[in-house]
Amino acid sequence: MINSARQQRLIDEAKALLKQGKVRWIIGFEAGSLKFTTTPLITADAGDTSRLVINSFIVNNLSNFLPELEGRIGIVAKGCDSRSIVSLIQDSKVRREDVVILAVPCSGLIDLAKVEQLIGKDRDEIDAISRKDDKVIVTLAGAKREFSISEALYDNCLACELPTPQEYDILLGEPILPSNEPAAGQKKLDELKKMSPEARWQFWKKELERCIRCYACRNACPACYCQRCFVEETEPQWLLPIPHWQDNLMFQITMDIHVAGRCTDCGECQRACPVNIPLRSLTKEMYDIVADLFHFKAGMDKEALPLMTHYEQEEAEDLIG
After folding, report:
1. Contacts from 135-144 at CB under 8 Å and sequence distance 24+?
2. Containing domain of residue 143, as a range?
3. Confidence of residue 1 (pLDDT cuts 50, 70, 90)
4. Where is the domain boundary, 100, 122, 152?
């Protein structure tokens, strides 16, 4: 559901930042060309800020654009986005003083693919989709159908630990408590863990045979900021350019290890995948392993050292078997 007062405040704040010369760029969301979608808006023109929106479909993690722009930047950030910004600050890819964070407390985003599956209709046939408390309301041919948030929100939203950004300059709205549906956000991963190793291997073999190696997952990930990826190296050549499933597996595992300690479980990798491979099951498992072994979660404290770039002289007792 659109909160018009909050959206208008965002427009006013963004316009003022540009007009007063406090930022060079504003990064936010505007209505997309497709129904029930938004698209990133990057502008230096104060007049463009009237197109900014806040709704239940602002899915992109906009922090991905920060390393590419020069000058001070105002950016709209949800809870997971703000954690990605903090992670970029920790890795010295972004300076805190160069970013003005317009924080949006987020109670979860609606997964259009889930909605289409629930009603058995394409989004073009839907009249309206709205959110009210713990329900998602879909209007179809004048009739309304209600679904619980556990059925209609993105899995990573259901498992979100910090829906209200901790790091911000301007807070747009009241703080929001975490979802009470974390088990629903963990369901697919739990199903995989219950499989035998052989069945799980066959599951990923089948999924990764569908991968076309378009690298949309990598390109959408704020933690993948290398100017040249290892898959593009030719001396040595780590992977063949042809998307064999073995090379696809190698790419995904290497990327997961690369973003360990940087992944905020924003779900962008899975959302960006054009063939709907459940990539979050891999990244969330890595996220949980990092939390269990190192008691570390990405983007929680900008003063903390990055996980993989420091060490402690005393070995943790729980690592000694």
Report:
1. 136/110
2. 110-152
3. very low
4. 152
Sheet holding 99-103, edge to edge: 38-43, 25-31, 73-77, 99-103, 170-171
Do residues 90 and 304 make contact, with C-beta atoms less than 8 angstroms apart?
Answer: yes
Euclidean distance between CA atoms 282 and 295, whole angstroms:
19
Q: Which of 17-31, 128-142, 304-318 comes out lowest in average pLDDT?
A: 304-318
pLDDT of residue 141: 85
Q: Which residues contact 286 (CB under 8 A, 6 or more apart)?
A: 256, 257, 259, 260, 263
Backbone angles phi, psi at 162, to 5 degrees: -135, 75
Peptide bond into 236 cis (omega under 30): yes
Look at residues 44, 84, 38, 42 and name the one whose alpha carbon lies nearest to residue 61.
84
Q: Are residues 98 and 129 in the same domain?
A: no
Provide the residue type at 108 as one letter. G
Whether residues 137 and 174 share a domain: the answer is: no
For residue 71, give every residue at least 6 positions away whose Cβ sits within 8 Å of its Cβ, in sequence order, or none: 23, 24, 25, 98
Residue located via tokens 């599956």: 117
9 half-sphere exposure, CB direction, 13 A CA radius: 14
Give the chain's domain count: 2
Flag whether the pTM goes above 0.70. Answer: yes
